[in-house]
Q: What sequence folds into this?
């Protein structure tokens, strides 16, 4: 007898929670209380039963003290304090792993993304999408930040064809799928890369982008470049392929150079020994070899971190029901 398609069993889902909202917190002491209030009002107005999960990523400010008061006052708030700073994506994974809702949403703690837009993302997901991203037509970031972001997205799409290009940190994900993300144990975490691996059934909703409520962005140029490099090396073999083609190109160039010198010697066009050109060639080829070895070293280092089985995150304290 055909009983129809098999249903996924999710032992962690709470039928009394429609949406679990995960908020990674890093130096957000001045904004998270307003964020909590706006999220609660927006989700209550949409008749969505919810829990808010704040994950404090050891930013060094008073965020944990604010969260302690929040958990004691509001029963729908849960808080997790990590043992050290693991990064935004690792903190997000920590919260997702503990989420119990039918849908799992994520949002930043700086109020640049409007909490009032989350119900619209949930409604879009209920049309049958596994992932829904809140995307911006324009951003209030600095020009250099917007340019590097767009350049990075274009390079990621070229290097990782399976990546959902219109990704953002404002997401709504099917809870059963979201809770599978914890199975990815790479120390170089990228939530949207994991989601792209699990599903291509995604949609987007355009949301406004507001100015940051307090302080400055925690992402410096160095952090952004390091994040981009980690994505390339973790989710793409493009650097290895580029190293292969670079090696082939330099080998072919060296062969043609040698052939040209040989012909020149036979025809008398070259009469003097080319010490300078020889040294330039050796230096160039040595640099190419070191570059290729460096690329291989980056991949080997990631394999070493993976086999060491180090945890992606470690929760030190937890508050809330």
A:
């Amino acid at each position: 007898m055909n009983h129809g398609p098999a249903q996924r069993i999710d032992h962690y889902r709470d039928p009394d929670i429609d949406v679990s909202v995960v908020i990674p917190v890093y130096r957000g002491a001045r904004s998270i209380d307003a964020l909590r209030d706006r999220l609660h009002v927006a989700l209550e107005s949409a008749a969505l039963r919810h829990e808010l999960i704040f994950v404090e990523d050891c930013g060094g400010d008073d965020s944990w003290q604010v969260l302690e008061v929040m958990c004691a006052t509001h029963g729908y708030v849960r808080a997790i304090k990590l043992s050290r700073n693991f990064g935004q994506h690792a903190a997000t994974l920590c919260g997702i792993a503990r989420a119990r809702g039918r849908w799992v949403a994520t949002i930043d703690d700086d109020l640049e993304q409007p909490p009032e837009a989350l119900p619209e993302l949930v409604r879009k997901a209920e049309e049958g999408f596994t992932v829904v991203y809140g995307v911006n037509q324009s951003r209030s970031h600095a020009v250099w930040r917007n340019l590097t972001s767009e350049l990075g997205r274009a390079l990621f799409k070229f290097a990782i064809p399976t990546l959902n290009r219109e990704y953002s940190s404002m997401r709504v994900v099917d809870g059963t799928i979201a809770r599978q993300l914890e199975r990815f144990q790479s120390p170089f975490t990228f939530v949207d890369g994991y989601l792209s691996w699990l599903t291509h059934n995604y949609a987007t909703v355009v949301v406004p982008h507001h100015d940051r409520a307090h302080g400055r962005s925690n992402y410096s140029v160095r952090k952004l470049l390091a994040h981009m490099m980690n994505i390339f090396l973790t989710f793409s073999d493009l650097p290895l392929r580029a190293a292969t083609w670079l090696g082939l190109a330099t080998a072919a160039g060296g062969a043609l150079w040698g052939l040209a010198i040989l012909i020149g010697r036979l025809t008398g066009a070259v009469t003097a020994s080319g010490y300078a050109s020889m040294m330039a060639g050796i230096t160039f080829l040595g640099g190419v070899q070191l570059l290729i070895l460096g690329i291989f070293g980056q991949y080997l280092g990631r394999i070493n971190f993976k086999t060491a089985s180090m945890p992606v995150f470690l929760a030190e304290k937890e508050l809330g029901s």
Summary: The radius of gyration is 25 Å.
